[in-house]
Amino acid sequence: MNEPISIMMQKLISTVDMDDSVEEVEAKLRINNVSAVPVIEGKTGAVIGIISARDLLRFHAEKRDPAALLAWEICSYRPIEVSSDTPVSEVAKLMVTHGMHHIVVTDNKLVKGIVSSFDFVKRFIHDD
Hints:
The protein is of the alpha/beta class. The chain is built from five helices and eight strands, in the order E-E-H-E-E-H-H-E-E-H-E-E-H.
């Protein structure tokens, strides 16, 4: 478990800009078949938050219009970020300690991927 998280992270397929509508966010999650997506600040590419399926469930429970709200209005701010060379064991500890299901992988402040609790399940099933 001392291997770098880059060996099991999902290479980033998609991010959303903080000014994308929630409707656009939902479409990207569906199209890419993922359960979370980092929210970035358009000019710098810096991660400002993350939107997960859980965030969207909470949003829909409030019966709000997905075309009328922007990603920055519903995202979870300041997600945990690790570099691609962070050991797998350290990422696992962060997830458990903070009760997180997704961690964003960045190098030089640019998004490289995302790792989810499901990625850990897949890894251990394949290691048997």
